[in-house]
Amino acid sequence: MEQPIIQINNEPRTRRKSSFSGVRPWRKLLYIKQPYPDNYTDPSFLSQLKRNSTVQKYSYWKLVKDFSLISLHLSTLAIVHIVFFGIYNFNWDPILPSSLGSILSIICYTIFKSYDDNSSTKGLNAFKSSILIMFSILTLSPVLKSLSESTSSDSIWSLSIWLLICNLLFTDYHFDINEKFKPVFSMNILIANVIVLASRLESTGSVFCFILFAFEVYGMFPFFDIWVRKNFSLIHWCLLLIIGILVDFFIWKMSGAKM
Predict the structure, then answer these.
(1) pTM to 2 decimal places
(2) Burial of 78 (0-12, 13-18, 19+ CB in 10 A)
C-alpha cells in the first residue's frame, strides 16, 4: 500500500530536503537573512537544549537538619517570651531565670574553652565584654523602664510581633555550617524587641534581669550551638529536644491546662 506524502507549504517533504541540499547550512541567528522559509526547522535546532540543568536534588535528612535549625530558633524566641510573660503576668522572680541563664552560659563557655587551645585570650576578652554589657544594662535599666510609659500596651504588643516577624524573615539560620555566621541585622531586631518588652516591666531590677537573660539566650547560645554542630552533632539534637520539651511544658503550665 502506497504511503501518503506529508506536505508542508504545498511541497512534499522529500522535495524540501533536496531543495536545500546546495544551500549554506542553517544558523540559529535572527539578524541575518537566510534562504530558508520562516517555518523551517533544522535538525540541529534542539541539539543544544539542556533540560533540568538547574534542578537540585535534596535529601530527606538534609531537609530535616535544616528545619531543626528553624525549630531551634523558634524555641529560643519562645523561651525569652515565656520568661517575659511569666514576669509580667505571673509575678515570676526575675532573678531566677537570669541566674540560671548565667550559670548555663558559664558551663557552655567552660566546655568550649576545654576544647579550644587558643581560648585564653578569647576567654579574657569574653569576660571583659560580659562585664561591660552587664554594667551597661544596669545603667540603662531606669531609662529603658520609662521608655514607653506614654504608649499603650496594645501598641507595644503589635510592635513586638512585627519585630519578631522581621527577625524570622531576615535571621541567618546558618544552614551551611562552613559559611560565615552573620547575625548582625537579625540580632539588632531582637535587641529592639527585648527593649520594647522590657519597658513594660514594673521594676528596674526586672528590666535588668530580663534583658540580661535575653542577651544570654540570643547572643551566646547561637554561637555555642554552631560550635556544637561542628564538633558534636548529637548534642545539637539533644539541645533541640530538651529546649522543645521545656517550651511545651511552660506553655502548657501558663495556659492553665489540666491533665
Answers:
(1) 0.74
(2) middle
